[in-house]
Amino acid sequence: MSILVVVGTRPEIIKMAPVIRRLEEKGLEYVFVHTGQHHDYEMSRIFIEELELPSPHVSFKLSNSSPASQIGEMIIKLENSLAGLKPSILLVEGDTNTILSATIAGIKMGVKIGHVEAGLRSYDWRMPEEHNRRMVDHVSDHLFAPTDVAKRNLVEEKVWGSIHVTGNTVIDALNLYLGRVRELEDKVMGQVKFTDYILATFHRAENVDDPNTLRNFLEILRRSPLPVVLPLHPRTRRRLQEQGLMSQLESLEKIRLMPPCGYFEFLALMKNARLLMTDSGGIQEEATHPAIRKHVLVLRSSTERPEAVSAGFARVVGVDPTVVLPELENLLSNRVNLPHSSPFGDGKASERIVDIVSSDLYT
Ligand code: UDP
Is 56 near ligand 1, meaning CB less than 6 Å away? Predict the structure, then answer.
C-alpha cells in the first residue's frame, strides 16, 4: 500500500522535498520516482543532494525531446514501473509535462491522484503549464490548493475530486532550509561582488521561444539602473545561442552571468537582492516569505499567483522595456513596506497533505 511521489524538474524536487521529509517522519512507505524531464546535474541531481532526499528509487533517461513525444515516453515508462509497484496513490506537484504524464499513467491504471499546488490559473492559453495544470486538476482525487484563491478556481470549474486548502509547500521548504542558506551566505555574496543588485531569471517558453521577447529582455538588462545577477536557465542559453544573441549578453557590463544555481545559493542571492525580476512561478512565492520579503517584477503578461500581487509583493509588467524600465525606476526610488507574512501559507502545507494522504490510505 504505497505512495508514489513523482517529480521531474527543479521546482518539483524543491516543492516535494518537505512532503518527502514528512512521509519519512511519519514512517509511511513511499516510492520516489524521477522522470528525467530535467536531467542536467545543475537542474536536478544537485537539489536531491542539497535537500538530502533519497536517491530516486526509479528514474528514467528520456530519449525524446519534443513535448508530445516526451510525454508519450514518460507515460510508457511510468506505466511499466507502476505495474510492478501497485501504488495506492500517486502524488504530483505543479504544472509540468511530468505531472501530466504521471497523471495519465496513474489514472489509466486505477491509481488515485493527489495534485499538490492545484487550482492555479494564469488564464494564458499560450502557456503549456496552463494546459497541464487544468488537465491534471480535472482528474485528480485530491486537490491540494495552496490558497483560497486556488480553491475558488477549482470550485468554479466544478472539478471532480476533493479540494483541501493546505498552503504551498514552497514556504515549508524555505522554513526547512533557510538555516543552511545562512551558513553559505557570506561565501556566495563574496563571489557576486555587487552589494546592490537585481536578481533575474527568465526561462518561460512563451518568453524565450520568441526572438523579439529575448531581444527585449536583453534591452532591459542593458539599460537596468542596477547591476543584474542572472543565473541562466539551459533553455534560455539554448535560445540565445540559436538567435546569435549570446555574445551580446556576455558583453553587457554590470551583468553577473552564471550557470543555474543550487537552491541554497539561489536563496542567498534572493535574500540579499534589492529586488527580483523573473518569469518564474516559484520565485513569486518565495519572495513573500518573511525571511526574503522582496518586490518582484513579473516579466510576463499574466500570473497564476495573483496573491503575490494583491499582497503588494509582485507586479505583472510584461517584457516591453518601455514599461519595465520605468516600473523598475519607480520601485527603486519609492520605498514601500512589504507585509511580514506570506499569502502562500504558514509552512505546514506538507503536514496537512501527508495527513490527508495517510488517512485516505486507511479508508
Ligand atoms: N531556483 C534555483 N536556482 C536557480 C533558479 C531558481 O534553485 O538558479 C529555484 C527557485 O528558488 C525556485 C525554483 O527554482 O524554488 C523555481 O524554479 P523555476 O523558475 O525553474 O520553475 P517555476 O517555479 O517557474 O515553475
Answer: no
